[in-house]
């Protein structure tokens, strides 16, 4: 049997012909919420970031051969416990990187609009230059912004980048955006001392994992530094974020930076492919269908860009795809109710990527920039 998080995209088209599928809310895939009979039958387990696949859960599933997480982060998997039992596992690196890039760009445009400043004049510091950090970097570079990178493992491996140390970055960048995994050496990477060292008027974005920023310290620093602007998508203690941090954040969302229809489908596709290529493959697995074959939703209505592509018109295009300011309002309302955090996650499953919007323009330069940002363009 295949047991999966109910919020996983395309389970039916990809797996229904191969095995019985049993779905549950991700947080209910746990020892205390599954009966023994179900646990014993699970051969393939497909999860998202909210299901801790720990040693006890793994031990209770004697038939388990494959675990797939349709996420980039793997901090919820006990990989040692999986590997010691010879259970094959896979994640979905890069599946939702474009969505994170689009979220961060939209958030920065929203803040620039609110503060009446030009994003163009701000220097950006990206902490982590993997899939999501690079997706942000590409978009900001396409707009001509100065972007610095901090990724000691990549720098040490000889990769090219505009490298700065984290501490140097905090002192000279107007925007710091975090894109590192949650692991021992990144826990509270931004601690009280580093948060206090943020350049006056800085904007801090966290779309990685809540634990990367010391949330309580951030509340204290922000109380003393009203000049700071905060964009928080991830939180310590999800699904119950620190209320004081929600209150003092300028944009707050429910761990949905990486949510897009396309990203969710790519995640399940990658797991289908990984399972098919593993010794745990289900019988007679066909080739993984393409994104176009699985994408059943229509494109967004096309728009024409009248006039120049400037900060205001670009924000308008981003809002047509995804209204982040409205999501921020809904999140603040939802979070006061029990289950509100997860309700906003579920409500965000229909977001499209920029590529779903065709922008018609006769301005060749605007078309080039829009294409580099991920929009579909047409003359
Ligand atoms: N909010 C959301 O919806 C999403 C959150 N995430 C989170 O963001 C994290 C990053 O995602 P990706 O960029 O796709 O991962 P990735 O694995 O492609 O890149 C992470 C980068 O961080 C670097 N890194 C590691 N330690 C570092 C340190 N101490 N300082 C600076 N850089 C360091 C690595 O060398 C690597 O290049 C994921 O692990 C996940 O936890 C990912 C996707 C969506
Ligand atoms: O890919 C990751 O890592 C993430 O954080 C996901 O975007 C989070 O989404 P869920 O998998 O928890 O729905």
TrEMBL record:
Reaction(s) catalysed (UniProt annotation): 4-phospho-D-erythronate + NAD(+) = (R)-3-hydroxy-2-oxo-4-phosphooxybutanoate + NADH + H(+)
UniProtKB keywords: Cytoplasm, NAD, Oxidoreductase, Pyridoxine biosynthesis
Domain D-isomer specific 2-hydroxyacid dehydrogenase catalytic: 38-258
InterPro entries in alphabetical order: D-isomer_2-hydroxyacid_DH (IPR050223), D-isomer_2_OHA_DH_cat_dom (IPR006139), D-isomer_DH_CS (IPR029753), D-isomer_DH_NAD-bd (IPR006140), Erythronate-4-P_DHase (IPR020921), Erythronate-4-P_DHase_dimer (IPR024531), NAD(P)-bd_dom_sf (IPR036291), PdxB_dimer_sf (IPR038251)
EC number: 1.1.1.290
Residues engaged in binding NAD(+): 151, 207-209, 233, 258
Pathway assigned in UniProt: Cofactor biosynthesis; pyridoxine 5'-phosphate biosynthesis; pyridoxine 5'-phosphate from D-erythrose 4-phosphate: step 2/5
PROSITE patterns named among the record's database cross-references: D_2_HYDROXYACID_DH_3
Gene Ontology terms for molecular function: 4-phosphoerythronate dehydrogenase activity; glyoxylate reductase (NADPH) activity; hydroxypyruvate reductase [NAD(P)H] activity; NAD binding; protein dimerization activity
CDD domains xref list: ErythrP_dh
Subcellular location: Cytoplasm
Residue runs in coiled coils: none
EC top class named in words: oxidoreductase
Erythronate-4-phosphate dehydrogenase dimerisation domain span: 294-374
Any one of the GO CC terms: cytosol
Assembly information from the UniProt record: Homodimer.
Protein name (database record): Erythronate-4-phosphate dehydrogenase
Gene transcribed to yield this protein: pdxB
């Amino acid at each position: 049997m295949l047991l999966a998080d109910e919020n996983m995209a395309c389970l039916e088209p990809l797996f229904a012909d191969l095995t019985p599928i049993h779905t549950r809310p991700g947080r209910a895939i746990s020892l205390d919420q599954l009966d023994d009979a179900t646990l014993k039958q699970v051969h393939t387990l497909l999860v998202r970031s909210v299901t801790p696949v720990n040693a006890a859960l793994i031990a209770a599933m004697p038939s388990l051969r494959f675990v797939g997480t349709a996420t980039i982060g793997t901090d919820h998997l006990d990989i040692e416990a999986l590997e010691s039992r010879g259970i094959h596992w896979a994640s979905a690196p890069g599946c939702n990187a474009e969505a994170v890039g689009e979220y961060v760009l939209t958030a920065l445009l929203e803040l620039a609009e609110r503060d009446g400043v030009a994003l163009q004049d701000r220097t950006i510091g990206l902490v982590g230059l993997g899939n999501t950090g690079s997706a942000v970097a590409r978009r900001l570079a396409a707009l001509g912004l100065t972007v610095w990178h901090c990724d000691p493992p990549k720098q040490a491996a000889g990769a090219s980048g505009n490298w700065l140390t984290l501490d140097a970055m905090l002192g000279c960048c107007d925007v710091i955006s975090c894109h590192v995994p949650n692991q021992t050496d990144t826990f509270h990477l931004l601690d009280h001392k580093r948060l206090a060292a943020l350049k006056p008027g800085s904007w801090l974005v966290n779309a990685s994992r809540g634990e990367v920023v010391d949330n309580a310290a951030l509340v204290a620093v922000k109380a003393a530094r009203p000049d700071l602007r905060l964009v928080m998508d991830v939180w310590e203690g999800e699904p119950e974020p620190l209320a004081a941090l929600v209150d003092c954040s300028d944009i707050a969302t429910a761990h949905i930076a990486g949510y897009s229809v396309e990203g969710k489908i790519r995640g399940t596709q990658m797991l289908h492919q990984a399972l098919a290529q593993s010794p745990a493959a289900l019988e007679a697995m066909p080739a993984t269908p393409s994104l176009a074959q699985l994408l059943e939703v229509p494109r967004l209505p096309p728009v024409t860009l009248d006039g120049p592509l400037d900060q205001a018109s670009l924000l308008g295009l981003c809002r047509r795809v995804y209204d982040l300011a409205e999501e921020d309002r809904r999140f603040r309302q939802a979070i006061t109710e029990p289950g509100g955090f997860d309700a906003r996650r579920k409500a965000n499953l229909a977001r499209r990527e920029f590529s779903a919007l065709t922008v018609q323009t006769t301005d060749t330069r605007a078309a080039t920039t829009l294409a580099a940002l991920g929009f579909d363009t047409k003359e």
